[in-house]
Design brief:
Blueprint: E1 9-15, E2 20-25, E3 30-35, E4 43-49, H1 63-74, H2 81-87, E5 94-99, E6 104-110, H3 115-127, H4 133-150, H5 154-165, H6 179-182, H7 187-199, E7 204-209, H8 213-223, E8 249-254, E9 261-268, H9 275-300, E10 307-312, E11 320-328, H10 333-349, H11 354-371, H12 375-383, H13 391-404, H14 408-418, E12 425-431
Parallel strand pairs: 3-7, 8-12
Antiparallel strand pairs: 1-2, 2-3, 4-6, 4-7, 5-6, 9-11, 9-12, 10-11
Helix pairs in contact: 1-4, 1-7, 3-8, 9-10, 9-11, 9-14, 10-14, 11-13
Length: 433
């Protein structure tokens, strides 16, 4: 039913240089709006709440993935998935439930003429979630099939075993566990965990795209601002933080006929909150990729496609790593580990040349400029949870100039600080002999 009353606005703020409006309602709902003309008749939305996978109990590994899939297969409490899809036939509006590392989210897409339908769906998913026994059974069957396939894949083994290894065995990371363990989680556990998040903690709604901000504010007031005020979560968060396995190794054997190994070498870095450091560590990963491309191919004479990237956390203090991944012939796995560590040491011993630096910085700045003309960037990197993390607005202001100002000596100093070969965690995934 359509709410008969609307929530009252407590405060509103214009962030004029970024074209953003932020609104707070009396019930605690936080609203972030950015109308754009990047794509005509397209709207993207994200409603965030709760603590996501960070909140998974120690004895309930896989709860986040299970909850996500069950809510998708269940549809709503009043309409199952097929009935919901039938009701939405002929429309362009969809909403899906996601369990992220540090929040739950209802993410969606819509078009300008269906803005009210979008808000109706958000309210329905928030207040009438579905938890069906049939969905629970189907999800467990699907997971068992996916797990069996993944156990015969070199690449999937990284998600099954490697990601968790890089978090010190923390079960919140990586793929869900063995199907036998996942099947021990009951539908009631899923329901209790999700409903805790759906009924506690502030809501923050972010909307980007081709819409009228005044209409969006009115609809937010009616469909979400009219909900009861939500207190903070009543469940304590008592989990140890992930631990990077400095200097440790993991060998994984996979039952496969594919004659390939995957070498993964990771170096511990830091969390994301020093944004200038984070940006330069991202650039260092690009420089690492460039050195790998040149040196591995020159020395090994093979058409390998090695790459490096930097992954960092905004919720786990000090947790982050720079990771190198290379697919190689099984007999070349150990020599490749040695080669990667040598390149890492070289990055700390000598600064990049000017030409090499510009081959990294110029494309990055160009990509950022292009990215800033997309709804996805503004929703995912700037708007979403920008009242919870107001630093994101300043990051949007400085990102282009910050990357353009990166100096070779800064990257050398970071490499010297973080790319210590003895601290590297090594994963080698190979065919079972």
């Amino acid at each position: 039913p359509i709410p008969t009353e609307s929530g009252r606005i407590q405060s509103r703020r214009q962030v004029e240089d970024l074209g953003i409006e932020q609104v707070v309602f009396d019930n605690g709902l936080r609203l972030n709006l950015k109308p754009t003309d990047f794509a005509a008749n397209e709207i993207s939305v994200e409603l965030t709440f709760g603590r996501g996978r960070r909140d998974v109990p120690v004895d309930a590994a896989g709860l986040g993935r299970l909850a996500e899939d069950i809510l998708y297969e269940s549809g709503l409490g009043s309409l199952d998935r097929i009935e919901l899809e039938t009701a939405l036939a002929g429309t362009s509006t969809r909403v899906a439930f996601d369990v992220n590392e540090d929040n739950f989210a209802l993410g969606g897409e819509s078009v300008t003429s269906e803005l009210e339908l979008l808000f109706q769906l958000l309210r329905a998913h928030l207040t009438d979630p579905g938890f069906r026994d049939s969905a629970h059974r189907l999800v467990l069957e699907q997971h068992a099939q996916d797990f069996r396939r993944a156990r015969t894949s070199i690449d999937s083994a990284l998600g099954l075993d490697g990601v968790r290894f890089l978090a010190g065995g923390d079960a919140r990371f990586g793929w869900p566990p063995d199907p036998q363990d996942l099947s021990k989680l009951t539908l009631e556990q899923v329901k209790d965990w999700v409903l805790e998040a759906l009924t506690h903690g502030p809501l923050e709604l972010s909307l980007v795209g081709d819409f009228d901000p005044q209409a969006a504010t009115r609809l937010a007031a009616r469909y979400l601002g009219s909900l009861p005020e939500r207190g903070e979560s009543s469940a304590p968060l008592a989990r140890p933080e992930p631990r990077f396995p400095k200097g440790e190794r993991l060998a994984v054997a996979v039952e496969t006929q594919v004659d390939k190994s995957l070498v993964v070498v990771s170096f511990p870095t830091a969390d994301m909150w020093d944004i200038e450091r984070t940006r330069r560590l991202n650039a260092l990963a690009d420089l690492f990729t460039e050195r790998l491309r040149v040196e591995i191919r020159e020395e090994w004479g093979a058409s390998y496609s090695p790459f490096a990237f930097h992954r960092t956390s905004r919720i786990y203090p000090g947790y982050g790593f720079l990771q190198v991944m290379i697919g190689v012939a099984p007999q070349e796995a150990e020599p490749m580990v040695t080669a990667v560590k040598a390149i890492a040491a070289g990055l700390g011993n000598a600064a990049a040349g000017e030409d090499e630096l510009q081959r990294i910085v110029h494309p990055t700045v160009s990509r950022i400029r292009d990215m800033r003309s997309t709804n996805g960037y503004w929703l995912g990197s700037v708007l979403s949870e920008s009242q919870r993390f107001p630093q994101q607005l300043e990051w949007a202001r400085t990102i282009v100039n910050s990357y353009a100002a990166i100096a070779a000596e800064e990257l050398r100093a970071l490499a010297d600080q973080y790319l210590e070969p003895e601290n590297a965690a090594v994963i080698v995934i190979s065919p079972e002999k």
